[in-house]
Design brief:
The radius of gyration is 22 Å and the shape is globular. Strands 1-2-3-4-6-5 form a 6-stranded mixed sheet, with helices on both faces. The relative contact order is 0.10. By secondary structure, it is α/β, with parallel strands linked by helices. It contains 13 helices and 6 strands. The longest helix has 20 residues. It folds into 2 domains: 216 residues, no CATH class; 91 residues.
Length: 319
């Protein structure tokens, strides 16, 4: 059987490619319209292993001690990026500032945050949009006490985002990934597609220096960078198409797709096995109590059922 690659190869490559201060200045100037010179002080503060589920963030850096920039690269659509970004930025502030007199009577100056997501997946998205933390608030109110606004930019090469015209490195990265995707679609062999794209791009001066340094190890590097999270994303996307047609349960907020439902059931089973109540599980997972109670009831009354059986049972009861 041919070796297959997981989808997170794009995230790993993106992170490594831009782990360079001059490239970060180039990228930030392009996305913000600024004109910082390449010698501007930059401190790279990307989280290597955050406390939030063991996840890493993609890029985090401070410019001139005045701006803190977080950039995530996504190959799947994730409406929860404002919440994730809030967790990341809180961790960054804690690391940078917690010991600098935050309990003193003087205000502690903090770098201004800017939050970005670069999307490079196959589902259709507009060239640019904003996601807000407050959009997910359960209770809507006139005065918002906490907000996080994430600017989402579609950097797919074929979409022709203006950002790609302003940042040569990002444009070449996007072209490289587009070339892999086109070749993979034709052949069905991702390993061969990567090898062919590396050679093509080196021959055509696309990321030539980077690929020249890393091209020999590029295929193995891309495979090594694959994560369990992205493997699950593939299964979730498969479930999404079925879930859209079948529906999981009428009345579930935003139409919970089947892949997400299976993942949620697994979490509830795990917590229920440790003696947690349905109410406590709903609180921990920030999910609607009614749905958690249904999963909890099915899981505890039928302990031998797997996730799919529980999901099918809830669908049947909801009809």
């Amino acid at each position: 059987m041919a070796q297959t690659a997981k989808r997170n190869y794009k995230d790993g490559l993106f992170r490594v490619l831009f782990n360079d201060k001059e490239k970060l200045i180039e990228l930030y100037n392009a996305v913000s319209g600024s004109n910082y010179p390449k010698e501007t002080p930059v401190e790279i503060i990307t989280l290597e292993d955050s406390i939030f589920g063991g996840l890493k963030n993609d890029l985090a850096f401070v410019i001139n001690n005045r701006l803190i920039i977080l950039i995530e690269h996504q190959s799947t659509i994730n409406p929860n990026m404002p919440l994730r970004m809030l967790c990341y930025i809180a961790k960054e502030y804690e690391r940078l500032l917690f010991s600098r007199g935050i309990y003193s009577r003087r205000p502690v100056p903090i770098p201004t945050p800017e939050l970005y997501v670069f999307y490079n997946g196959t589902e259709d998205l507009p060239l640019e949009q904003e996601l807000k933390l407050s959009d997910s608030f359960v209770e809507k109110c006139g005065k918002i006490a906490l907000e996080a606004v994430v600017r989402v930019i579609n950097v797919n090469y074929e979409k022709g985002a203006k950002l790609l015209q302003r940042c040569e490195t990002l444009r070449e990265y996007s072209q490289f990934m587009h070339d892999i995707r086109v070749r993979y679609k034709k052949s069905g062999d991702l390993t061969a597609a990567i090898r062919e794209s590396v050679k093509y791009c080196m021959d055509h001066n696309v990321l030539r220096d980077f690929l020249k340094r890393n091209g020999g190890d590029m295929v193995s590097f891309l495979f090594e960078e694959l994560s369990r999270e992205e493997c699950e994303a593939i299964r979730e996307e498969d479930g999404y198409e079925r879930g859209k047609a079948e529906g999981i349960e009428k009345g579930v907020k935003q139409g919970l797709e089947k892949g997400e439902m299976l993942k949620l059931i697994t979490l509830v089973q795990r917590k229920a096995s440790k003696g947690q109540s349905a109410e406590k599980i709903a609180e921990d997972l920030l999910e609607e109590p009614e749905m958690i109670r249904k999963i909890f009831k099915a899981a505890t009354e039928h302990p031998t059922w797997n996730e799919t059986q529980i999901c099918e049972h809830i669908e049947e009861v909801g009809k």
